[in-house]
Write a structure and sequence with these properties.
Elements (H helix, E strand, L loop, with lengths): L14 H49 L1 E5 L14 E5 L14 E5 L13 H12 L9 E9 L3 E4 L7 E2 L2 E2 L16 E4 L4 E5 L21 E2 L3 E10 L5 E2 L6
Antiparallel strand pairs: 1-2, 2-11, 3-4, 3-11, 4-9, 5-6, 5-8, 6-7, 9-10, 11-12
Length: about 250
Protein backbone atom coordinates (compact mmCIF):
# COMPACT_ATOMS: atom_id res chain seq x y z
CA UNK A 1 0.00 0.00 0.00
CA UNK A 2 1.33 3.35 -0.95
CA UNK A 3 1.92 5.14 2.34
CA UNK A 4 3.55 8.22 0.82
CA UNK A 5 1.54 11.34 1.53
CA UNK A 6 0.33 13.20 -1.57
CA UNK A 7 1.95 16.45 -2.42
CA UNK A 8 -0.20 19.43 -1.45
CA UNK A 9 -0.44 22.53 -3.65
CA UNK A 10 1.29 25.62 -2.34
CA UNK A 11 -0.98 28.49 -1.41
CA UNK A 12 1.68 31.14 -2.16
CA UNK A 13 3.88 32.16 -5.03
CA UNK A 14 7.13 30.51 -5.81
CA UNK A 15 10.37 32.27 -4.83
CA UNK A 16 11.06 33.07 -8.44
CA UNK A 17 7.70 34.73 -8.86
CA UNK A 18 8.21 36.90 -5.73
CA UNK A 19 11.61 37.93 -6.96
CA UNK A 20 10.11 39.06 -10.27
CA UNK A 21 7.54 41.19 -8.53
CA UNK A 22 10.20 42.74 -6.29
CA UNK A 23 12.34 43.58 -9.28
CA UNK A 24 9.31 45.07 -11.06
CA UNK A 25 8.32 47.13 -8.01
CA UNK A 26 11.89 48.39 -7.57
CA UNK A 27 12.08 49.32 -11.24
CA UNK A 28 8.75 51.13 -11.09
CA UNK A 29 9.81 53.04 -7.95
CA UNK A 30 13.10 54.01 -9.61
CA UNK A 31 11.34 55.32 -12.70
CA UNK A 32 8.91 57.29 -10.54
CA UNK A 33 11.77 58.86 -8.56
CA UNK A 34 13.62 59.73 -11.75
CA UNK A 35 10.43 61.25 -13.19
CA UNK A 36 9.90 63.41 -10.08
CA UNK A 37 13.52 64.51 -10.20
CA UNK A 38 13.18 65.43 -13.88
CA UNK A 39 10.04 67.47 -13.14
CA UNK A 40 11.80 69.26 -10.29
CA UNK A 41 14.71 70.10 -12.59
CA UNK A 42 12.30 71.34 -15.29
CA UNK A 43 10.44 73.59 -12.86
CA UNK A 44 13.68 74.83 -11.34
CA UNK A 45 15.04 75.75 -14.77
CA UNK A 46 11.73 77.42 -15.68
CA UNK A 47 11.87 79.42 -12.43
CA UNK A 48 15.46 80.53 -13.07
CA UNK A 49 14.59 81.47 -16.66
CA UNK A 50 11.58 83.43 -15.40
CA UNK A 51 13.73 85.35 -12.91
CA UNK A 52 16.33 86.12 -15.59
CA UNK A 53 13.63 87.36 -18.01
CA UNK A 54 12.02 89.51 -15.30
CA UNK A 55 15.36 91.07 -14.33
CA UNK A 56 16.15 91.71 -18.00
CA UNK A 57 12.77 93.39 -18.57
CA UNK A 58 13.18 95.51 -15.44
CA UNK A 59 16.62 96.66 -16.55
CA UNK A 60 15.28 97.36 -20.03
CA UNK A 61 12.34 99.37 -18.66
CA UNK A 62 14.54 101.30 -16.24
CA UNK A 63 17.11 102.40 -18.80
CA UNK A 64 15.80 102.00 -22.36
CA UNK A 65 12.08 101.45 -23.04
CA UNK A 66 9.36 101.38 -20.41
CA UNK A 67 5.73 100.31 -20.87
CA UNK A 68 3.33 102.87 -19.43
CA UNK A 69 -0.32 102.05 -18.71
CA UNK A 70 -2.73 104.87 -19.58
CA UNK A 71 -5.05 105.28 -16.57
CA UNK A 72 -7.33 108.17 -17.62
CA UNK A 73 -9.12 109.88 -20.53
CA UNK A 74 -6.92 112.98 -20.48
CA UNK A 75 -5.08 112.10 -23.72
CA UNK A 76 -8.02 110.92 -25.83
CA UNK A 77 -8.32 110.32 -28.71
CA UNK A 78 -4.54 109.88 -29.07
CA UNK A 79 -4.25 107.53 -26.10
CA UNK A 80 -7.14 105.61 -24.56
CA UNK A 81 -7.67 104.13 -21.12
CA UNK A 82 -5.89 100.76 -20.96
CA UNK A 83 -3.39 101.50 -23.74
CA UNK A 84 0.19 100.48 -23.03
CA UNK A 85 2.54 103.00 -24.55
CA UNK A 86 6.25 102.36 -24.94
CA UNK A 87 8.30 105.23 -23.56
CA UNK A 88 11.72 105.90 -25.08
CA UNK A 89 13.88 106.75 -22.06
CA UNK A 90 16.92 107.54 -24.20
CA UNK A 91 15.11 110.19 -26.27
CA UNK A 92 16.42 113.12 -24.22
CA UNK A 93 19.60 111.63 -22.79
CA UNK A 94 21.73 112.07 -25.89
CA UNK A 95 21.55 115.85 -26.19
CA UNK A 96 18.06 116.17 -27.66
CA UNK A 97 15.43 118.30 -25.91
CA UNK A 98 11.63 118.00 -25.73
CA UNK A 99 9.92 119.80 -28.59
CA UNK A 100 6.44 121.20 -29.04
CA UNK A 101 4.08 118.37 -29.92
CA UNK A 102 6.05 115.64 -28.13
CA UNK A 103 4.14 113.26 -25.91
CA UNK A 104 6.17 113.08 -22.72
CA UNK A 105 5.94 111.03 -19.55
CA UNK A 106 7.23 112.90 -16.53
CA UNK A 107 7.47 112.84 -12.77
CA UNK A 108 5.09 115.53 -11.57
CA UNK A 109 6.49 115.68 -8.04
CA UNK A 110 6.94 119.33 -7.14
CA UNK A 111 5.01 120.62 -10.16
CA UNK A 112 1.73 118.70 -10.50
CA UNK A 113 1.72 117.06 -7.05
CA UNK A 114 3.27 117.96 -3.74
CA UNK A 115 6.00 115.93 -2.13
CA UNK A 116 4.40 112.99 -0.34
CA UNK A 117 5.66 110.93 2.59
CA UNK A 118 7.09 107.58 1.59
CA UNK A 119 4.73 104.63 1.84
CA UNK A 120 5.46 101.01 2.74
CA UNK A 121 8.80 100.19 1.07
CA UNK A 122 7.92 96.63 0.04
CA UNK A 123 4.54 97.66 -1.34
CA UNK A 124 6.11 100.53 -3.26
CA UNK A 125 8.81 98.22 -4.61
CA UNK A 126 6.27 95.65 -5.85
CA UNK A 127 4.03 98.33 -7.37
CA UNK A 128 7.03 100.00 -8.99
CA UNK A 129 8.11 96.70 -10.55
CA UNK A 130 4.58 95.97 -11.81
CA UNK A 131 4.16 99.48 -13.28
CA UNK A 132 7.63 99.27 -14.87
CA UNK A 133 6.43 96.18 -16.73
CA UNK A 134 3.16 97.85 -17.71
CA UNK A 135 1.11 95.52 -15.50
CA UNK A 136 -0.15 98.15 -13.07
CA UNK A 137 -1.18 101.77 -13.19
CA UNK A 138 1.74 104.20 -12.97
CA UNK A 139 2.62 105.96 -9.74
CA UNK A 140 0.36 108.84 -8.73
CA UNK A 141 3.23 111.19 -9.52
CA UNK A 142 3.72 110.07 -13.14
CA UNK A 143 1.84 111.78 -15.97
CA UNK A 144 1.69 111.73 -19.76
CA UNK A 145 0.93 115.02 -21.55
CA UNK A 146 1.69 116.86 -24.78
CA UNK A 147 4.33 119.60 -24.86
CA UNK A 148 2.69 122.88 -25.94
CA UNK A 149 5.42 125.31 -24.93
CA UNK A 150 9.17 125.01 -24.29
CA UNK A 151 11.58 127.34 -22.51
CA UNK A 152 11.28 130.93 -23.74
CA UNK A 153 7.91 130.47 -25.48
CA UNK A 154 5.11 133.00 -25.04
CA UNK A 155 1.92 130.91 -24.82
CA UNK A 156 -1.47 132.63 -25.00
CA UNK A 157 -5.04 131.45 -24.87
CA UNK A 158 -6.78 132.30 -26.89
CA UNK A 159 -6.77 134.28 -30.15
CA UNK A 160 -9.88 135.60 -31.94
CA UNK A 161 -10.38 132.17 -33.49
CA UNK A 162 -10.24 130.40 -30.12
CA UNK A 163 -6.82 128.89 -30.84
CA UNK A 164 -3.76 128.80 -28.60
CA UNK A 165 -0.92 130.99 -29.83
CA UNK A 166 2.77 130.30 -29.32
CA UNK A 167 5.04 133.25 -30.01
CA UNK A 168 2.21 134.92 -31.89
CA UNK A 169 1.54 131.94 -34.17
CA UNK A 170 -1.78 130.04 -33.82
CA UNK A 171 -1.36 126.32 -33.13
CA UNK A 172 -2.98 123.78 -35.42
CA UNK A 173 -4.01 120.95 -33.12
CA UNK A 174 -5.54 118.07 -35.10
CA UNK A 175 -5.01 115.76 -32.12
CA UNK A 176 -7.62 117.52 -29.94
CA UNK A 177 -10.61 115.52 -28.77
CA UNK A 178 -13.51 116.17 -31.20
CA UNK A 179 -15.70 118.99 -29.94
CA UNK A 180 -13.19 120.19 -27.33
CA UNK A 181 -12.05 123.82 -27.27
CA UNK A 182 -8.26 124.34 -27.11
CA UNK A 183 -8.89 125.75 -23.62
CA UNK A 184 -11.77 127.29 -21.71
CA UNK A 185 -9.28 128.77 -19.25
CA UNK A 186 -7.68 131.98 -20.55
CA UNK A 187 -3.99 132.41 -19.78
CA UNK A 188 -0.81 134.05 -20.93
CA UNK A 189 2.53 132.75 -19.73
CA UNK A 190 6.18 132.87 -20.69
CA UNK A 191 7.72 129.46 -20.19
CA UNK A 192 10.93 129.71 -18.10
CA UNK A 193 14.06 128.17 -19.59
CA UNK A 194 14.54 124.55 -18.62
CA UNK A 195 10.81 123.93 -18.19
CA UNK A 196 7.79 122.84 -20.26
CA UNK A 197 4.14 123.88 -20.53
CA UNK A 198 2.11 120.68 -21.06
CA UNK A 199 -1.54 119.94 -21.78
CA UNK A 200 -3.73 116.90 -22.43
CA UNK A 201 -5.36 116.27 -25.82
CA UNK A 202 -8.77 115.87 -24.17
CA UNK A 203 -8.70 119.37 -22.75
CA UNK A 204 -12.01 119.17 -20.87
CA UNK A 205 -10.88 115.98 -19.09
CA UNK A 206 -7.24 116.89 -18.47
CA UNK A 207 -5.65 118.29 -15.34
CA UNK A 208 -2.49 119.85 -16.73
CA UNK A 209 -0.35 122.98 -16.53
CA UNK A 210 -3.46 125.19 -16.57
CA UNK A 211 -4.63 123.75 -13.24
CA UNK A 212 -1.44 124.79 -11.44
CA UNK A 213 -1.09 128.37 -12.61
CA UNK A 214 -1.46 129.83 -9.13
CA UNK A 215 0.81 127.29 -7.41
CA UNK A 216 4.58 127.34 -6.87
CA UNK A 217 6.17 126.65 -10.25
CA UNK A 218 3.08 127.86 -12.11
CA UNK A 219 2.37 124.49 -13.71
CA UNK A 220 5.75 124.31 -15.43
CA UNK A 221 7.43 120.90 -15.64
CA UNK A 222 11.24 120.89 -15.27
CA UNK A 223 12.88 119.18 -18.24
CA UNK A 224 14.96 117.15 -15.79
CA UNK A 225 11.73 115.54 -14.54
CA UNK A 226 10.88 114.12 -17.97
CA UNK A 227 11.13 110.32 -17.93
CA UNK A 228 10.96 109.87 -21.69
CA UNK A 229 8.98 110.32 -24.88
CA UNK A 230 5.92 108.17 -25.60
CA UNK A 231 6.69 106.71 -29.01
CA UNK A 232 4.45 103.69 -29.69
CA UNK A 233 1.24 102.06 -28.58
CA UNK A 234 2.24 98.47 -27.82
CA UNK A 235 -1.08 97.14 -26.55
CA UNK A 236 -3.80 96.31 -27.45
CA UNK A 237 -2.59 94.87 -30.74
CA UNK A 238 -5.52 96.46 -32.57
CA UNK A 239 -4.01 99.88 -31.73
CA UNK A 240 -0.37 99.00 -32.39
CA UNK A 241 1.48 101.91 -33.98
CA UNK A 242 3.04 105.32 -33.40
CA UNK A 243 1.70 107.17 -30.39
CA UNK A 244 0.80 110.25 -32.42
CA UNK A 245 3.26 113.04 -31.77
CA UNK A 246 2.66 116.28 -33.63
CA UNK A 247 5.27 119.01 -33.73
CA UNK A 248 4.38 122.70 -33.75
Amino acid sequence: MDTEAPHTQRGHSSPDEGEGRSRFAFSKTGRSARSRHAWRLTWRRAGVLGVICTVFLLLLSNFVVQPFLIPSRSMEPTLKVGDRVLVDKLAYRLGDQPRRGDLVVFDGTGSFVRERPAGHPIGELLHGAASALGLAEPADTDFVKRVVGVGGDDVVCCDAGGRIEVNGVPLEEPYLYPGDAPSKVPFRIVVPLGTLWVMGDHRSQSRDSRDHLGEPGGGMVPVEKVIGRAEWIGWPLSRWGAAGGGHG
